[in-house]
Amino acid sequence: MIDSKTKLCCIIGNPVEHSFSPQMHNSGYKALGLNFVFLAFKVTNVEEAIFGLKALGARGIVVTIPHKRAVIKYVDQLDKTALSIGAVNTIINDNGILKATNTDWIGALEALEEKTEVVHKTVALLGAGGAARAVAYALKKRSTKVNVFNRTKEHAEKLVNEFKLSAAYGLDDIGKIANSDIIVNTTSVGMKPIDDSPIPIDCIRPKHIVFDIVYTPRETRLIRLAKKVGATVVYGDKMVLYGGVRQFELFTGKKAPVDIMRKALLLC
Ligand code: ATR
After folding, report:
1. Cis ω for the linkage preceding 217 (within 30 of 0)
2. Which residues are identified as catalytic?
3. Which atom of ligand 1 is nearest to the CA of 130?
4. Diameter of the chain by CA atoms?
5. Residue ID of nearest Cα to ligand 1 atom 31
6. What residues line ligand 1, using a CB cutoff of 6 Å?
7. Strand order of the sheet with strand 90-94?
8. Measuring CA to CA, which residue among 130, 61, 128, 141 is closest to residue 101?
9. Closest CA relative to residue 122, chosen from 137, 151, 96, 143
10. Which residue's CA is the nearest one to ligand 1's atom 26?
11. Nearest-angstrom CA–CA distance, 178 and 157
12. Helix, strand or coil, per DSSP, at residue 171
């Protein structure tokens, strides 16, 4: 029951109505009998939101689009991971000190590794924005060969140089994707309400592992095309799950009930 000792965790974003984090975290609190509650707040003024939550003693803040970079200047400590990725998705309030990190990379890596080995594989990374940075950071930990394909080739080149990846390509070279083992979509193409795929079906082979980090809808067009070809698919909500599991543990100090949280996500 919510009482005067209940600890508050929340997600801030805009929009935030689509977020599955409240269901996922609250199901975990309930399963473990923790006196925590997780709410979603639509936020436009990041500075006021962060200072307000700090003043109220909120224990944990999950940060989503479009505030992942903006929050950096309002936290007290930024760890090396958040610094390398250049974005924050998790803030822990440790007795009035706001400590920021990023769990997106863990989410992406665990989602992929549930289906395939990643070490020494070749990945076609689609996109070169914030989400691509988290995935690039994850793949660097596994000595994976990463080729970046992006609409704006200069953005791909910048990402390749910064993370010391293999090669940068524009969309003219999209045919080269066929030589990869794994395809990861980090662009927003395919997100509701636009039913579109970042690559055509003829780039996809049955040998491919296709991971789409877009999770609204669950069956994106890219996932549907991959299934049609007979490729193995990895759903975007797995990244939400495994990144969320880490957040749960950072906020509560308890081992997360992963199966309960997975079930809660599937009901969303
Ligand atoms: P996020 O932080 O969610 O990754 P972002 O930083 O805005 O968002 O990056 C979005 C990525 O998706 C970029 O790589 C973008 O390509 P550009 O660098 O050319 O802008 C890519 N993207 C977005 N819309 C796209 C579209 N319609 N077709 C192809 N790529 C798209």
Report:
1. yes
2. 68
3. 2
4. 59
5. 187
6. 127-132, 150-152, 155, 186-189, 198
7. 36-42, 7-13, 60-63, 90-94, 97-101, 77-78
8. 61
9. 143
10. 189
11. 20
12. helix
8 A C-beta contact, residue 209 and residue 231:
yes
Ligand 1 atom nearest the C-alpha of 127 is 14
8 Å CB contact between 159 and 135 = no
- Please name the residue that has the structure tokens 């660097």: 140
Looking at the chain, the number of H-run helices and the number of E-run strands are 9, 12
Ligand 1 atom with minimal separation from the 187 CA: 12
- Whole-model pTM? 0.94
Q: Please state, in angstroms and rounded to a whole number, the distance separating the CA atoms of residues 263 and 20.
A: 12
Residue nearest atom 27 in ligand 1 by C-alpha distance: 189
CA of 125 to the centre of ligand 1 (A): 12
Report the candidate in 210, 261, 264, 214 with the shortest Cα–Cα distance to residue 237: 214
Residue 189 alpha carbon to ligand 1 centre in Å: 8
Q: What does each of the 268 residues of the chain score in pLDDT, given as a tens digit?
A: 899 999 999 999 999 998 999 999 999 999 999 999 999 999 999 999 999 999 999 999 999 999 999 999 999 999 999 999 999 999 999 999 999 999 999 999 999 999 999 999 999 999 999 999 999 999 999 989 999 999 999 999 999 999 999 999 999 999 999 999 999 999 999 999 999 999 999 999 999 999 999 999 999 999 999 999 999 999 999 999 999 999 999 999 999 999 999 999 988 8
Chain centroid to Cα 137, Å, comes to: 12
Query: Which of 69, 150, 213, 216 to mutate to test ligand 1, by most ligand atoms within 8 A of the CB atom?
Result: 150
